[in-house]
Request: fold
Amino acid sequence: MTTTAKCHQVSRAALSLLLSVIWCGSICFGQPPTTIRARPDSELRRVHEWWYSCAGEPSDNEVDSVLAWADSSPDDAEGVFLAWAAAHAKLGTRKLTAEEVDALLEGAANKQYVPAVAVRTMQTAEKARNTGGPDAAARALRGLKDDGSPDAAYALGIGGTLTATSRDDLARATDILIDAADRGMVRAWTWVAMCEARMAQFDRAKEFIQKGVDHGDPQAIGLMGAWYLDGYNLLRDEKAGFELLERASKFRTANGKFDRRLAECLEKGTGTTRDLPRAFDHYLRAAQGDDYVSKVWVATALVLGRGVERDVDQGLKLLTQLSEVGDAAASRQLGVFYLEGLVTKRDIDRARQLFGAAAKAGDESAAEYLEQLDVAKQR
Reply:
C-alpha cells in the first residue's frame, strides 16, 4: 500500500470515529454538554439521621438538594421518601403544596419502599377510621413490622395508642413503640412516655420522656416542659418548664406547636420575667402555625396595643374574619368591643348577635354576656 493510500485510510478512520462521536452526542456543537446530577449522599444521610435519630435538623441547603434530587430521580425511592419527610416537616426554602408533598410519599410508596408504604398505610387508615380502615391498616403494618421496619412499628404503635380502649391495648401499643425506638426510630420514645402516663406509670413515663429529650426530639423536649409547668408526672418546676419550652420552640420542625405555651409564660411571668413584646412574637408564631387561640390573642393585642404597636382597624378586621369562620372566642371578643364602644362605635344589637353565635358554639363567657344583656333589656 502506498503512503498516500495509508494516509487516506487513516483519514477515513479518523472521520468515521469523529462522526460516531458526534452521532452519540458526546460532542454537540453550539450546545453545552449534558450535566448529570450526582446523588447527594451526604445530604440524604443528614435527612435520614434527622428523621430516625433526631440528630439535628438538616440545613435549608441540604433539604433543597434532596428535593431537587427527588425531582430529577423519581426512581430513587429512598431519596423521594426522605424528600417527603423534609417537605412534610416544612423544612427547606422551597415550600411545596400539600398535593406536592403527598405526591412524593405516593411516588416512594408506589416503588414499594417500606417506610413510605408504612406511612401511607397509616394515613389511609386515619381517613377511613369509621369504615374498618384501622383494622386493615394494622394487619398490613404488622406484616411490615415483622419484616423489621421501624417505620411500620412506629405507625402501628401510634395507631394502637390512638384507638386504645383499655389498659391492655395501651400496654400492647407501648411494647410496639419500644420496639420501634430500639430499631432506631427514637421519636417513638415520646409516644411511649405518653402511653405510660395514661397508664399512671409516672416513673416510667419520666424515664422514657427523658430518653426523647436526650436524643434531641423537639416533641419530647416540649412535652417535658409542659409537664414541669403543670406538675404532671413531675414535681412542678416553672423555670425548668419555661426553659424546655423555649428550647423546643427553636426547632423549625416545631412549627409553632410550643410557642403558644411559651407565650402564655411570657405574658403572665410564669417561670420567667413578664415580657409582653416577646409574648406577642410567640403568639404570632403560634398563630402562623394555625393555632386559633393565638390568632384571637394576636388580633386582640393589635386592638389594645398589648406588646405591639396599636392597630385597631387591623385587629378588628382579623377578629371579624375569625368570627365569620365560626371562631367562638373571636365572636365573643368582638362582641365585647361592640358592647363597650371604646374602640369602635357601640352597637348593642351587633354585640348580642356575636354573643349569641359564640354561646351557640359553646362559649360559656359569651352565654353569660348574653344573659346580662337580656336582664338589662327587661329593666
